[in-house]
Design brief:
Blueprint (H helix, E strand, L loop, with lengths): L1 E11 L2 E7 L4 H4 L3 E2 L4 E7 L8 E7 L1 H29 L9 H30 L4 E9 L1
Parallel strand pairs: 4-6
Antiparallel strand pairs: 1-2, 1-5, 2-4, 3-4, 5-6
Helix pairs in contact: 2-3
């Protein structure tokens, strides 16, 4: 996916933060961070030496989009289903006044919540690793 954006800051040598308007696919991805007024920010590989204020074309790598979509949409569902079956399995081991289904639902929601925490931790790890999921292709002008 290619977008036109503006270099908002240089993070370090070879890495820049790019600001662009959210496109139609942005609602489905979740890889970029959203600013206060609706603009999107992403870290991009800056091998061509773009400077702050340069208008550039940035490509968000397809592998990154696919991985992000899988993590955001599929992993919580997997945790939800696994949580339900774990809850149903441990119900006989715990003396409780709750029904089998209630126990399964409670565990399902607990596991889904845990998946959100794990995804947040993984997202922070990726941010600190400094591996960009986008790259600057070319300059299209300056502001």
């Amino acid at each position: 996916m290619k977008e036109i954006g503006r270099v908002s800051k240089i993070i370090k040598e070879g890495l820049a933060e790019v600001e662009f308007k959210a496109g139609s696919a942005c609602a489905k991805c979740g890889r970029c961070s959203m600013g206060v007024s609706g603009e999107m920010f992403i870290e991009a590989e800056n091998k061509m030496g773009a400077k702050v204020g340069d208008m550039i074309e940035v490509e968000i790598l397809p592998s990154s989009l696919l991985a992000s979509s899988f993590l955001i949409y599929i992993v919580p569902i997997i945790f939800l289903v696994v949580g339900y079956f774990v809850g149903v399995s441990v119900h006989p081991l715990i003396l409780s006044g709750l029904s089998l289904e209630s126990f399964g639902i409670i565990f399902a929601l607990l596991f889904m919540f845990i998946s959100f925490i794990l995804l947040k931790v993984y997202d922070r790890y990726l941010s600190q690793a400094g591996k960009p999921c986008a790259k600057i292709l070319r300059k299209v002008g300056e502001v």
